[in-house]
Prior knowledge:
Elements: E1 4-6, E2 15-18, E3 21-31, E4 41-48, E5 54-60, E6 64-66, E7 70-81, E8 84-89, E9 95-98, H1 100-103, E10 115-121, E11 124-129, E12 133-141, E13 155-160, E14 165-169, E15 177-181, E16 187-190
Antiparallel strand pairs: 1-6, 2-3, 3-4, 4-5, 7-8, 7-10, 8-9, 10-11, 12-13, 12-15, 13-14, 15-16
Amino acid sequence: MASLIEAIDIKRKMFLEYEGAPFHCLDVDISRPTARGGQTLVRVKIRNLLTRAVFDRTFKAGEKFSEPDLVKVKATYLYADSTGYNFMDQESFETMALSGETLGDDRLFLVDNLPVDILKYNGNPIGMELPPHVELAVTYTEPAVRGDTSSGNVTKAATLETGLEVRVPLFVKEGDRVRVHSETREFVGRANS
């Protein structure tokens, strides 16, 4: 049987089961009362892994939650087709498909052979976790214009090979490969060639 998690022990990026569904904790705020006899409250921002909806909830410190039956499977992105986005399990070599709605905007990071973790809930694939940084090629960006730095513009918009748009430094040009942080969607640096 899965162990129980007390609300006071919930941490950012943790998984828990609430109202019969798996949730991922995005943020936690613990408020401790100043008055005697007051209850410690735990405010959490959680995402339902099945619907991708985000909720703010407040729990008493002693409330307990079970761990969801989640399994992370190492996989590689293969291709997209009418069934969805297809991944290959690195152990069993089976193909798994996830829909565009399930992936949300994370699909803008998917390039051939990208290693990811597929989340399975009760044996069914329900989502994916990206690596911290993803390397993508710049397909379009405006050329740097002399005088941009003096006006305070030290970044410019760039469109990457998957359609993702990020702000990049002025020295980045079309054809360059850049590293993007998958959580913040910010430019990290040039890719190692």
